[in-house]
Amino acid sequence: MEDSIELILQDYAGVFPTSRPHPIxxxxxxxxxxxxxxxxxxxxxxxxxxxxxxxxxxYLPSSKEQAQNVMKLLEGxxxxxxxxxxxxxRLVFAASSVGFQCTGFEINSVLVAYARxxxxxxxxxxxxxxxxxxxxxxxxxxxYNNVTAFLAPGVMEVLAEKLLKELPQDALVISCRxxxxxxxxxxTVGSGLDQTFAYEISSVRSHLRNLQKTEMx
Length: 217
Ligand SMILES: C[S@@+](CC[C@H](N)C(=O)[O-])C[C@H]1O[C@@H](n2cnc3c(N)ncnc32)[C@H](O)[C@@H]1O
Description:
The chain is of the alpha/beta class. 42% of the residues lie in helices and 15% in strands. It is built from seven helices and seven strands, in the order αααβαβαββαβββα. Helix 5 links the parallel strand 2 and strand 3. Residues 51, 57, 59-62, 83, 85-87, 90-91, 105-108, 111, 135-137, 150-151 line the site of S-adenosylmethionine. S-adenosylmethionine binds at residues 51, 57, 59-62, 83, 85-87, 90-91, 105-108, 111, 135-137, 150-151.
């Protein structure tokens, strides 16, 4: 019986190799992974050194469908628009093409340079779209009546506080993928990862005021 098990194992030796990979192969794989991580962080992380870990949001571009959902929610609106974390500028370009005066705030200098060159290449004037390399948490948003954000679930509560403090009463806020906790939605478009939510700041403020009143009773 023991003999037969050994024979079986010998038969399968080619299918399940038991020997360890060659040290050079391991070293090369390690170096390749480290290089890829380095490359990824060069494009996704510059500017993040001064931002607390809990507020870090990596780059992930909006899908075509998500951008279309944002545009649907912006229908009937006009004026100034701030895109918080503008990435390569795709939401800014979409909104500026229908007449918004857009500012894309972005912390990653590589993405800012890329978005600016795209704007230049497309001949979009700075009266329609500008990209500012700035930390959104240190940016005064009081002059914007439209705000778009595709960030991360962990920052939505902090962002909600900031927007409530700074935005004018007629502002509309659009959040991609991640809803604001405790804010009543005006409307939502799409589903799954492309779902997009719209909030009227005036309604949010009055909802929160009423909530506070009922809690005090
Ligand atoms: C999920 S991506 C969205 C990019 C773009 N808005 C889009 O929809 O394709 C989030 C972006 O926010 C930027 N970001 C993260 N933290 C930021 C901060 N504190 N200030 C400005 N931009 C920030 C990231 O660099 C990244 O480009």
